[in-house]
Design a protein that fits this description.
There is one protein chain. The chain is α/β, with parallel strands linked by helices. The chain contains 9 helices and 13 strands. Strands 4-3-5-6-13-12-11-8-9 form a 9-stranded mixed beta sheet. A two-stranded antiparallel sheet has the order 1-2. A hairpin with a 5-residue loop joins β12 and β13.
């Protein structure tokens, strides 16, 4: 206010924060309107909720509106029961294939995450594989990236998978890669959809769900909480029980059903209290059982809809717990891949 005054500007104090959950409006020292914060927030949000209920899925719209009633919601938090292992500094940087298709835009973050974990990231497109400019047999690691393949039209991941399944030579190369015991693969977002449609080629992936249109009927881009489940995933080794924040950005992320085999669920959507949820928006797509990712029975292939590669450093998060800086907990996933290769 002093600075405003120095420059000839008038600063008027219109309000101040309060420690309670009550909003008060005064004029001339007299209270003219007062009430519960939730009441006013719901008034403010009601028009948007009613429009959304008409336009989108009414159940999801109502679930989001009803979250405003939960005055005891603890808000965002994380639980990190592990440490990121030290980087392997032998001088060797094994190559990992960063695979993308037309429209994919998450390959740069994916390459950066694997690079930070001690890999040499090799960028390649499906055209590179089809025209044999890149040979899949030279790699032990494969990351299928996400971000609007084919403009993110409905069934984009299925279309990507069919470019492999309907090409005899590519189908044979991918089959050979997945059957090698010294390989791992990660699929994120469109890459998750694509690898789920290749389940017939992946040992121990039978019973994986397919990923279909979000229950909200809308593209969902938001920060969500996931809990890492006990599973054989080599990428998530030592991370079970962690509750982490991760961005999602997809239009088709709802798992069609729970995996049939025990232990295939790798991570689940949870609410701010850490409970597995199917409610929107904590579960952004309506997946049954909160399924956010699955793994093969031997743990070498893991797929998930959220984007951990976008937040492997704390500074990349839109919200972080106080005092956190440097490498984020998701770097552990990529470091696990590097450690596993040394023992494979």
């Amino acid at each position: 206010r002093e600075r405003f005054t120095r420059h000839g500007l008038v600063a008027v104090r219109v309000g101040s924060p309060a420690s309670g959950d009550r909003i008060r409006f005064t004029r001339g020292g007299r209270e003219v309107l007062a009430g519960d914060r939730v009441h006013y927030r719901r008034l403010w949000s009601e028009t948007g909720w009613r429009m959304r209920a008409l336009r989108d899925d009414p159940v999801a719209a109502r679930q989001e509106f009803d979250t405003l009633l939960d005055v005891s919601d603890p808000g965002l938090s994380v639980r990190i029961p592990f440490e990121t292992p030290p980087m392997i500094r032998t001088g060797a940087r094994p190559e990992v294939l960063i695979l993308r298709e037309q429209g994919v835009n998450g390959h740069v973050e994916m390459a950066a995450a694997f690079h930070a974990a001690g890999f040499t990231a090799v960028d390649a497109t499906m055209t590179d594989l089809a025209r044999e400019r890149t040979d899949l047999t030279r790699f032990q690691g494969l990351a299928a990236c996400g971000g609007f393949s084919y403009g993110d039209v409905l069934g984009a991941g299925q279309g990507w998978a069919r470019s492999i399944l309907f090409n005899d030579r590519l189908k044979e190369r991918f089959t050979e890669f997945f059957q090698r015991a010294d390989t791992f693969a990660l699929g994120v977002c469109n890459g998750c959809q694509m690898l789920s449609a290749l389940a017939e080629l992946i040992p121990g992936a039978q019973g994986w769900p397919r990923f279909v249109r979000n229950k909200s009927h809308r593209f969902e881009a938001r920060l969500v909480s996931v809990e890492i489940a006990p599973s054989p995933s080599v990428l998530l080794a030592g991370m079970a029980g962690a509750r982490l924040l991760v961005p999602c950005a997809h239009g088709e992320g709802m798992a069609t059903l729970l995996p049939r085999a025990e232990g295939q669920i790798a991570l689940r959507y949870v609410d701010n209290r850490g409970h597995t949820t199917e409610n929107y928006p904590a579960n952004p797509n309506g997946s049954p059982g909160g399924v956010a990712g699955v793994t093969s029975l031997d743990g070498r292939v893991t797929i998930m809809m959220p984007h951990p590669e976008r937040v492997f450093r704390w500074v990349q998060h839109s919200w972080i717990p106080e005092g956190q800086q440097g490498d984020g907990p998701w770097l552990r996933m990529f470091a696990n891949a590097r450690s596993w290769l040394d023992g494979a």
